[in-house]
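chain below, 627 aa
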Amino acid sequence: MSDLYQQFVKTLGLSYRPEQEAAFEHLCVDMSRDGFITLLQAETGIGKAYATALAAIDYLQRTLDDRVPRKVIVATGTLALVKDLESCFKNLQHLMDTLEFYPSVGCLLGKNHFVSPERVSGHVAADWSPGDKALADQLMDWAEPIEDFIRTYGYLPGDLVPEDVCQTQHSVREDWANERQSVLANDVIITSHAMIGTDMNHSFFEDGRSTYLIIDEGDAFVDHLESMQLISFNIKREFSKTSHMFSARGQEKIARIVEQSMDTFLEQPEFSSAEREMAASTLAALSEACRYKKRNLSKEERNWLSEMQIYLDFLRDKSRMSKYFGCGKTKVLQEPSILMLNPYFSRYFGTYSDRFNAVTLMSGSLSVGRNLTEGTKWLVFKLGLKDVALRTAEVSPAQFGSLEIQLCPPAESMYVAGDQLNPYWLKSTASIIEQLSGRTLVVVASHKEAEELGKNVANCIVQEKGERLAHATERFVSGSASVFITAAGHTGVNFVDASGRSLLKNIVLTRLGFPGPSPFTLALKSSEEFKANGMRTKLLNSEFYDGLQKVIRRVKQIIGRGIRASDDEIKLYIIDHRFPAPTAFNHKFSALRNAIPRRFMSCYAKDNSQFGIRKTDDSNAAEEFII
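prediction:
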């Protein structure tokens, strides 16, 4: 047992966990390999948070020996996980008496987590209740993350959502830059995946110190980088609440631009040369309209207009250089938007990693296969790590929790026409859920499905569209409802009691949630290049296997929501007929069996199908690519 891990166990009065020490040792080895990237498959139940914190302390302690200034950056997927890591470092301060050095720790979150007082003020309406107005005053003075405000007060005033009041590129508090610099000066910086994605463009983490980067939830990190591939500038939304800043002529110009965009923008962008020209001319017209402003504007309003013009000019320059620049409309509200697509953004990470002394990506679902090297090839490709020095390692508890798996698809088809849910499927699925004993998490693949299923299940809580997962989870955990239905409950949330035990007894997975075609595929669908040389088939096949990998990771994450302690017992009910039976070796979706953690494969092999009738037809393409 290493000295530092021994001190940790003794000081905090914990029991020795060999898997946790193994994860700690792997992280320590990783940081000593200059220029290496390590892919660490670390299953649920290891205690990664404390292992990460201890490894960071170990790395920084070496500064005392070699006098090289060091820094550790730990990035994870959600605010809740950021807070968990921060609490681990706080708990480890008990070690200070036995260590020569203890690091300073700071949390760095993006602007969108924090309140913009001027945006709050802009939403306050005369017909608001006195209570909402008083709460708005509290919100304008709130310096902590918006999620903490919601946790403290229960909600935001006036039915606002965080996106309405958060800081944006055009609405930043004056002290924001100073606050960020203060956090960046720490020895350990705990941050989000989003901030790493931002740093890939802006490089604010570099300060001359030898830096070790640890990315937790590495598979979710890849998903986040892919979400950054498409930048959308919604013309109507950006200018809808700022008309009071413009003169009559400016308002007239903007209204005309929005109207013309509504008439000329296609529903689906094609990223053609004609669209690039249309985007450039629209951006130029908007920039010109921003010059027609009122004279009696506040300092904040003048700053907004100035920054908006800079951003519009930035997009205009990009439209001249980028091949993938187009015009389209939002899916639901059909609002005109200018879009910039960089289909290779995630692959920049391979080059970006050169800025760090060492990098570790870890997760319980990095690998989508039994062989670690083969199972992580998807990640190597997505992050552009082909020419990078790589090391792979795996830590898995021999026994952690108990899982019983039931394959129970209803006989009814999920859809009756298009994307209309079959009422008989809803009733059949609801009857399965209502037969279960104990608190149940139901993970669906869309908010629409959650809403419709919730109407058929008694005593349930449904995460509403636009509602933060943390808020909905708190309603379930603190309430008496027996069922929680959500489209987002597969990662970044814990359903545990005060002792860390899981509150759940059952998890129901209604649909595997294959992703729809990417914006890249949709944009090229009508192009001649796409149709030629079998490119369409190749691209769709590639996206199908990419979707398989995402589903494997999603199911692994869902299982992890229920097993949080070594003695947790969970029953998993998989309703989607596409999940293969143990004996279906030639099944179209056979690869999905890799979603079952190795320690539970004997349970999966039993093929318990006590509910419903298993469908054998897996050819329903309408269900394969729907979120």
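Confidence is low (pLDDT under 50) at residues 612-627. The radius of gyration is 26 Å.
thats it, cya
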